[in-house]
Amino acid sequence: MDETRKKIIIQEINSWKESHMIPEQYCNYLLALYCQGELPPAYSNKTGRDKKDILSGLIIGAFFVFIVFLNYFTEIPIRMQIVGTTISIIIFGFLVRRFINKKIVFQLTLIGMALLMLLFTVKLTELIAPGKESILNTCLFIHCGLWILIGKKLKLFYFSISGCLGVIITLYFLLI
Questions:
Q1: pLDDT-derived band at 43, boundaries 50, 70, 90
Q2: How far is residue 31's CA from residue 11's CA, in Å, rounded to a whole number?
Q3: Gap between the Cα atoms of 45 and 95, Å rounded
Q4: Predicted local confidence at residue 29, as pLDDT
Q5: Residue 102: which of 61, 155, 57 has the closest Cα?
Q6: For the chain, what is the total number of helices (H) and then of strands (E)?
Q7: Cβ neighbour number for residue 71 with a 10 Å cutoff
Q8: How far is Cα 165 from Cα 171, in angstroms, rounded to an integer?
């Protein structure tokens, strides 16, 4: 088989392995078959993808910081803050779907979306029931429960830990 053709096939198998299109053991079998038992050459496009992932993560982080800055450090009315946060949550939802195959960027967008949902919950509770701590605590318990469920479903340990810590902190402030 032609060497350039073999390299293209090996690169394609590596991309299938990264994107989980085919189970990893099948990809390893195909790589061993096409490399004739030798170690496959390094995937050359990986550094380009890593740079794109880093850039995407930086843009997502900057967007999150910008939204938090708008909500806490400006004199925007609470209704406008809620609208801005809602639009941001929708954008983060699209980004979560877009980056579902990219592990780090997906987790960053999911964290950003979860924190914006927490911000949205607090702002909406302040608008609907100002001064009613029982309603805020109930919303926070529900929110932390969702974090625990997301952590278990997606096997993200830090989401489950964050949800449990949120429940403990909310209980602490509820009892004091």
A1: very low
A2: 10
A3: 23
A4: 82
A5: 57
A6: 7, 0
A7: 21
A8: 10
